[in-house]
């Protein structure tokens, strides 16, 4: 798949990093691939249920404080996984495809030798990455900030002691030759042990190729139920944008993606979703879209989960009725409690019970008055409410209201209401059914110590979502994502 580097103002013809870092308006356009592994699912209900379960599991995991990294991406092989291709090493270059995840801050993948326990059926051995070969000397020192970052900010002295650096060397800070000890990551349904390495990573492009010579990543040699790997785009030191920005601030300080709407239809996901590293000028934004403006909201700091992109949510409108979000969604407190995480690695949006229940009550008052509730479908899909209907169903508009912009983000209907044919698999009577695709994340008490809500990637489809790290804000603008890809790529 083509990907391109654009230098909007300066045509610079040297291809090394030094040259790139002096230009001002540049972007790197990369394709995100969305695969729907439909063969894993025997029905739409089954697909939805699995996706709903995984969204909930990741959300609940996100507040666990046993391990700083326990929030790390829960792979979404079921419904919505967006992958990014990278190349590692030179001789020969090895390609790898990773989940693009704004909810975690480390890039990691399986390295040879690799043992994956309970991984049967979790991936397709024909298309999944082969474990990469990384030279044994491509290590990271126990003294490095990267090592501390991977070890939940444990001090270098501790880490070097674990790496068996002798005390006298620790005292004189002379442990550089000792490598960073392995670390453990836990998922809701998997885990792994990885080591930090530093090696050449390139972001594949036709020509020239963008090369990061000393890119730091985790190499997993053993994993439980987790065979793929993740490209962390979160706010930490080790994330891909953070490492990119130390070479080229222009490329690393801002990124956006535009997820092509798929509605779980595999024909629609053939088009790549653009991932845009770097900024492009406001006037350039007119390419391939309706020129819609970004609605911005500030990024909030989360002392306990610093890698999350948290924002404040003030309410959600159902039609003209505005439902206020509980106070703790407006901001994040000193204990890391509250706010809404904008996450590319969760499928369905999770809301605290109070907001979810009010929203559903309002929704059901409008839709349920006219249409029969489909309780059996709710059981089968894990989504609620669902309704049967004949030909058409009127659905109220939903608008998200973030802190700082009262006008809000109006969601396209297909971002929150999924319509399908029940019995379409040949079992029983065929009926049209539609379900609200927002989920109940539990009550406020259960949510203490972590985010109060997550904005899932399903609800982000058809928007360009920008993470402006320099101005510390997140923005949303309606886009035709497939045409945005085409027009940026033709430039
Ligand atoms: C589909 O698979 C799920 C889980 O494997 C199973 O519980 C369900 O009964 C299956 N449904 C059909 C219609 O085969
Ligand atoms: C690792 O070993 C290779 C070949 O043995 C050598 O070319 C390379 O410079 C070494 N790298 C480091 C960081 O020592
Ligand atoms: C990569 O790291 C090695 C060892 O720390 C250093 O010698 C080399 O100059 C670095 N390369 C680049 C391009 O920064
Ligand atoms: C909210 O966003 C819209 C669309 O970008 C913009 O026109 C408006 O000025 C913003 N309002 C505030 C208060 O920032
Ligand atoms: C939803 O919002 C759009 C855009 O503001 C508006 O044109 C449409 O009439 C609204 N639909 C309903 C059912 O209120």
UniProtKB/TrEMBL annotation:
<comment type="similarity">
    <text>Belongs to the peptidase A1 family.</text>
</comment>
<dbReference type="InterPro" id="IPR032861">
    <property type="entry name" value="TAXi_N"/>
</dbReference>
<feature type="domain" description="Peptidase A1">
    <location>
        <begin position="82"/>
        <end position="477"/>
    </location>
</feature>
<dbReference type="Pfam" id="PF14543">
    <property type="entry name" value="TAXi_N"/>
</dbReference>
<feature type="signal peptide">
    <location>
        <begin position="1"/>
        <end position="16"/>
    </location>
</feature>
<dbReference type="InterPro" id="IPR032799">
    <property type="entry name" value="TAXi_C"/>
</dbReference>
<keyword id="KW-0378">Hydrolase</keyword>
<keyword id="KW-0645">Protease</keyword>
<dbReference type="GO" id="GO:0006508">
    <property type="term" value="P:proteolysis"/>
</dbReference>
<dbReference type="InterPro" id="IPR033121">
    <property type="entry name" value="PEPTIDASE_A1"/>
</dbReference>
<dbReference type="GO" id="GO:0004190">
    <property type="term" value="F:aspartic-type endopeptidase activity"/>
</dbReference>
<dbReference type="InterPro" id="IPR051708">
    <property type="entry name" value="Plant_Aspart_Prot_A1"/>
</dbReference>
<dbReference type="InterPro" id="IPR001969">
    <property type="entry name" value="Aspartic_peptidase_AS"/>
</dbReference>
<keyword id="KW-0325">Glycoprotein</keyword>
<protein>
    <submittedName>
        <fullName>Probable aspartyl protease At4g16563</fullName>
    </submittedName>
</protein>
<keyword id="KW-0732">Signal</keyword>
<dbReference type="InterPro" id="IPR034161">
    <property type="entry name" value="Pepsin-like_plant"/>
</dbReference>
<dbReference type="Pfam" id="PF14541">
    <property type="entry name" value="TAXi_C"/>
</dbReference>
<dbReference type="InterPro" id="IPR021109">
    <property type="entry name" value="Peptidase_aspartic_dom_sf"/>
</dbReference>
<keyword id="KW-0064">Aspartyl protease</keyword>
<dbReference type="GO" id="GO:0005576">
    <property type="term" value="C:extracellular region"/>
</dbReference>
């Amino acid at each position: 798949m083509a990907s391109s580097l654009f230098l909007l103002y300066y045509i610079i013809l040297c291809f090394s990093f030094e040259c790139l870092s002096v230009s001002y308006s540049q972007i790197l356009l990369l394709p995100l691939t969305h695969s729907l592994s439909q063969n894993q699912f025997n029905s739409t209900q089954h697909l939805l249920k699995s996706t709903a379960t995984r969204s909930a599991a990741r959300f609940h995991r996100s507040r666990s404080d046993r391990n700083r990294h326990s929030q790390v991406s829960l792979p979404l092989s079921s419904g919505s996984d967006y992958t990014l291709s990278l190349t590692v090493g030179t001789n020969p270059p090895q390609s790898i495809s990773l989940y693009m995840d704004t909810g975690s801050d480390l890039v990691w993948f399986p390295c040879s030798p690799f043992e994956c326990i309970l991984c049967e059926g979790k991936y397709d051995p024909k298309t999944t990455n082969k474990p990469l070969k990384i030279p044994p000397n491509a290590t990271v020192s126990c003294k490095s900030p990267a090592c501390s970052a991977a070890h939940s900010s444990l001090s270098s002295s501790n880490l070097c002691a674990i790496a068996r650096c002798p005390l006298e060397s620790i005292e004189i800070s002379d442990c550089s030759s000792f490598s960073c000890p392995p670390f453990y990551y836990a998922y809701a349904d998997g885990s792994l042990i990885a080591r930090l390495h530093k090696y050449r990573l390139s972001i594949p492009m036709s020509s020239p190729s963008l090369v990061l010579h000393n890119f730091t990543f985790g190499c997993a040699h053993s994993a439980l139920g987790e065979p793929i790997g993740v490209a962390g785009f979160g706010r930490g030191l080790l994330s891909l944008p953070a490492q990119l920005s130390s070479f080229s601030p222009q490329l690393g300080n801002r990124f956006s993606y535009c997820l092509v709407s798929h509605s779980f239809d595999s024909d629609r996901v053939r088009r790549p979703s653009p991932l845009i590293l770097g900024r492009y000028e406001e006037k350039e934004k007119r390419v391939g879209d309706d020129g819609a403006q970004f609605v911005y909201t500030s990024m909030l700091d989360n002392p306990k989960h610093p890698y999350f992109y948290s924002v404040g949510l003030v309410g959600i409108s159902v039609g003209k009725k505005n439902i206020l979000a509980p106070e703790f969604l407006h901001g994040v407190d000193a204990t890391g409690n509250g706010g809404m995480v904008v996450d590319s690695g969760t499928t369905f949006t999770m809301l605290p019970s109070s907001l979810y229940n009010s929203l559903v009550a309002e929704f059901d008052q409008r839709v349920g008055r006219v249409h029969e509730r489909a309780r059996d479908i709710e059981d089968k899909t894990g989504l609620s409410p669902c309704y049967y209907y004949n030909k058409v169903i009127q659905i109220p508009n939903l608008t998200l209201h973030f802190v700082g912009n009262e006008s809000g983000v109006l969601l396209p209907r297909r971002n929150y209401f999924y319509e399908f044919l029940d019995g379409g698999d040949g079992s029983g009577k065929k009926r049209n059914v539609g379900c609200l695709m927002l989920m109940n994340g539990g009550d406020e008490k259960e949510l203490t110590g972590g985010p109060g809500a997550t904005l899932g990637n399903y609800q982000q489809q058809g928007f360009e979502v920008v993470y402006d790290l320099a101005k510390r804000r997140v923005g949303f603008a309606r886009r035709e994502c497939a045409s945005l890809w085409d027009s940026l790529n033709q430039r």
